[in-house]
């Protein structure tokens, strides 16, 4: 599949995280992703469903996401309307 080729060609230490973050930039699912104050709040399970991520690599993806440069931690945020736990990343724009 396309994602696998991307992963193999990526030179990053966290190829799955790179592909994931790239794919969710194209998703506009309000219950999965919110952008606020230069940060990206991601409800992982919703985001994975939205981009049809292969379940077999979710565990590896978790490890990659925790190691990637943009990862800010997991916190409970209210930006989804009710307090939910989200994975927080810096926004794409700040890496320019």
Features:
4 strands; 96 residues; four-stranded antiparallel β-sheet; alpha+beta
Structure description:
This protein has 4 helices and 4 strands, in the order ααββααββ. Helices cover 36% and strands 23% of the residues. The mean pLDDT is 88. β1 and β2 form a beta hairpin. Strands 1-2-4-3 form a 4-stranded antiparallel β-sheet. The chain is globular and about 35 Å long. It has 96 residues and is α+β, with helices and mostly antiparallel strands.
Nutshell version of this structure?
The chain has 96 residues and is of the alpha+beta class. The chain contains 4 helices and 4 strands; from the N terminus they run H-H-E-E-H-H-E-E. Helices cover 36% and strands 23% of the residues.
Which regions have little confidence, pLDDT < 50, spanning 5+ residues? none
Beta fraction of the residues?
Answer: 15-25%
Strand order of the largest sheet: 1-2-4-3
Q: Given the C-alpha coordinates, what overall shape results?
A: globular
User: What share of the residues lie within helices?
Assistant: 25-40%
Give the quaternary arrangement of the chains.
Answer: single chain
Number of helices: 4
Biggest sheet record: 4 strands, antiparallel
Distance between the termini: 28 Å
- How many β strands by DSSP? 4
Task: Compute the average pLDDT.
Answer: 88
Structural class: alpha+beta
Write down the Rg.
Answer: 13 Å
Write the H/E string, N to C. HHEEHHEE
């Amino acid at each position: 599949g396309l994602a696998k080729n991307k992963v193999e060609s990526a030179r990053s230490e966290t190829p799955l995280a790179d592909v994931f973050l790239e794919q969710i930039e194209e998703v506009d699912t309000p219950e999965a992703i919110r952008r606020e104050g230069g940060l990206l709040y991601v409800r992982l399970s919703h985001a994975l469903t939205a981009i049809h991520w292969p379940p077999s690599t979710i565990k590896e993806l978790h490890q990659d996401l925790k190691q990637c440069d943009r990862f800010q931690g997991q916190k409970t945020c209210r930006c989804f309307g009710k307090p939910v736990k989200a994975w927080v990343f810096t926004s794409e724009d700040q890496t320019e």
